[in-house]
Amino acid sequence: MEGALAIEQLRPGDRVLIAEACAHHPIGEDIGRVKIPRWLTQYVGGRLDFQTVQGHDFPSDLSPYRLIVMRLVHAQSARSPEPHLRARAAGVPFTNYGLCIAYSLGIFRARPGAISGGAGCAFSS
Prior knowledge:
Elements: H1 2-5, E1 15-20, H2 31-44, E2 49-54, E3 67-70, H3 72-75, H4 83-90, E4 94-96, H5 97-104, E5 108-110, E6 121-123
Helix pairs in contact: 2-5
């Protein structure tokens, strides 16, 4: 959940990497290319710089990104080396689509102090 909590630290202009698991043909309201960027932009209150990659196109340099949002299957992929391990090694927060959506839409929030080292999250009902 740490990666989802990093959404709180995003500011307009920050770069966000959206990593899709497979090369598919995006349609209309594509979740990774349209909906998640819209919800994150609304949450932050300003424009973010999004880059979307598919499958094996995961960038080698992750330093420009403030957050990586990846499909769960991508995060657990057996492809080498695993993107979530590379993100962790680079010190870039990462989360999956589901937690990103839940946080940006207010379905769950960090409890006071959680982001600065405390613990806990709360789901709204």
